[in-house]
Amino acid sequence: MMNEFTQVLTIAGSDSDGSAGAQADLKTFMARGVYGMSVLTAAVAGNSYGIHDSINMPTSFIKSQIKDIKDDFKISAFKTGMLSDSEIIHTVTEEIKDGSFGTFVLDPVIITKHGAMLLEEEAYQTLIDELFPLADLITPNFYEAKKLSGLELNSKEEIVKAAHKLRDLGPKNIMIKGEHADDSLDYVEDFVLLEDGQSFWISEPYIKTDHVNGTGDTLSSSIVAEIAKGSSMEEAIRISKTFTYRAIKNEIDVGHKFGPINHFIHDEL
Fold first, then answer.
1. What are the tens digits of pLDDT across the range 187-208?
2. Known SUPFAM superfamilies for this protein (predicted)?
């Protein structure tokens, strides 16, 4: 039957070396057995050495991409990634707020895993004000959670407190990803606060490697895929945490410096 195969969407930037952004999302969607589509918000020129140029898509073009997806396809769940300025954030908000794309996972691309700010302050506030209240799940990294909550996150108790503060901003479910820029760590521990008030910690061993590009993209897009296939929020998060860990552990030799993770994992989770 028409449009019965599970379909999902990423609204994100294009990463030319394929390690992150929409490219990582689409690889994850395929690996998790769903049909992925993309709306590009920006494009980055980069490789394993770094990012060297970027350009934002015109908002009129972003609107056209979303309209064409809506006019033809049946999207069960979707995510947003890089939304680089206030105008783009507002445009995306206006186009998705009707709920026609199903469950919404927001990967707040605000600060890198090493603590570098990616958004101007105005865009940061627009993201919180306009998109956070629409999100079914947000997946901030350790540094993003610190900024969003105003807490230092020096203890598990502070991380739990931060999750509750983040939920006050509007998202239904919160996943605070653990710090993984410290080579002294034995485990990476994430904290999840669900809409019904239940919470849990989830961890995997820390792996020392330079091949971690796209980990956040992969985690959030895997959650999208699993939800679209019918998993609960908790099931989708647990499956995706394990999938992302295995993609890091089974290193793939691509590039000279900071490489991608390995999406070619076919064992059942």
1. 999 999 999 999 999 999 999 9
2. Ribokinase-like
Structural domain boundaries of the chain?
Answer: 7-249
Domain at 7-249, CATH from 1.10.3720.10, 3.30.420.40, 3.40.50.2000, 3.40.1190.20: 3.40.1190.20
Calpha distance 103→47 (Å, rounded): 32
How far is 99 from 133, CA to CA, in rounded Å? Answer: 12
**CB neighbour burial string for 97-120, b if at least 16 within 10 angstroms, e if fewer:** eeeebbbbbbbbbbbebeeeeebe
247 token code pair: 């993609």
Q: Locate 163 and state its tokens.
A: 């999750």
Instruction: Kindly report, residue by residue over 113-144, the tens digit of the pLDDT.
Output: 766 788 988 999 999 999 999 999 999 999 99
Are 112 and 149 a contacting pair, CB within 8 Å?
no
